[in-house]
């Protein structure tokens, strides 16, 4: 691919054609996992949820996760919710669906905005330099929620480059993580992991993609998850959900 064309991918209509509805069906499931991460940390005294007044999501797409956050009661003092994305089509859709949320079609790092909590769901695997991205992101808040796809697993290795290429062609992923490498990049980039969990996305999100094929495919992973969530992610993949703070 022409490198200049790739640099413009996420601001173009081509990306909108790739992702369709921006995975909005996954938003309730992703927010549910974020909520569990925050609740676990709150109960251990690791995050003062009553002090979270303003929240943003970087790479917000059409705002599905922020909509779920806005409807929850997790942050009692919440007064401002912002979404940032560089894709103009996504922002137009987000604005039409969520009038109570502020959306910005620009790079968060080019602003001086600061937040109590920043959400980053399925984002830095798209970025050419994820370490630089994460270091810049660290300057925007004290607390962060990450949802990271774990595509580096035994099944993907057995399928070889086809699965990685398909991930790039369909959604633009450049980097492929396991649970261990996902945690490592966060730690190296200056984050302290406060709470983490596996999403169980193949078994826990069946209602978003109901089909007999999906149900059959989920059965082996369901059994593996009962045995060991980590082993399940190593063999079949998953998403890692992390609440972190800046060091």
Question: How would you characterize the overall build of this protein?
Answer:
The protein has helices spanning 3-7, 13-19, 27-43, 64-71, 88-97, 130-137, 154-159, 161-171, 179-188, 201-204, 212-227, 229-236, and strands at residues 54-58, 80-84, 102-104, 117-121, 143-150, 191-198, 238-246. The chain has a 7-stranded mixed sheet, with helices on both faces. 45% of the residues lie in helices and 17% in strands. The protein contains 12 helices and 7 strands. The mean pLDDT is 90. Helix 3 packs across helix 4 (64-71). The protein has one domain: 3-Layer(aba) Sandwich (Rossmann fold). The protein starts with a helix and ends with a strand. It has 247 residues and is of the alpha/beta class.
Spell out the key features of this protein.
single chain; 247 residues; alpha/beta; Rossmann fold; seven-stranded mixed sheet; 12 helices; 45% helix; 17% strand
């Amino acid at each position: 691919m022409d490198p200049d064309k790739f640099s413009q991918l996420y601001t173009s209509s081509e990306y909108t054609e790739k992702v369709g509805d921006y995975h909005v069906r996954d938003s309730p499931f992703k927010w549910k996992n974020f909520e569990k991460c925050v609740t676990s940390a709150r109960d251990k005294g690791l995050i003062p949820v009553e002090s979270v007044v303003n929240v943003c999501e970087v790479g917000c797409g059409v705002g599905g996760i922020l909509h779920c956050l806005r409807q929850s009661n997790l942050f009692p003092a919440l007064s401002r919710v912002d979404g940032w994305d560089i894709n103009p089509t996504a922002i137009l859709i987000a604005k039409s669906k969520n009038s109570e949320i502020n959306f910005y079609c620009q790079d968060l790092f080019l602003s001086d905005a600061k937040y109590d909590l920043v959400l980053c769901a399925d984002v830095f695997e798209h970025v050419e330099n994820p370490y630089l991205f994460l270091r810049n992101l660290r300057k925007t808040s004290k607390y962060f929620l990450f949802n990271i796809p774990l595509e580096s697993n035994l099944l993907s290795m057995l399928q070889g480059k086809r699965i990685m290429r398909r991930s790039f062609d369909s959604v633009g992923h450049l980097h492929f993580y396991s649970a261990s490498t996902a945690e490592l990049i966060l730690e190296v980039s200056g984050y302290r992991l406060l709470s983490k969990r596996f999403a169980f996305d193949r078994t826990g999100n069946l209602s978003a993609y109901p089909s007999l094929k999906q149900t059959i495919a989920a059965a082996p992973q369901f059994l593996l998850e009962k045995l060991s969530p980590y082993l399940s992610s190593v063999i079949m993949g998953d998403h890692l959900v992390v609440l972190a703070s800046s060091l």
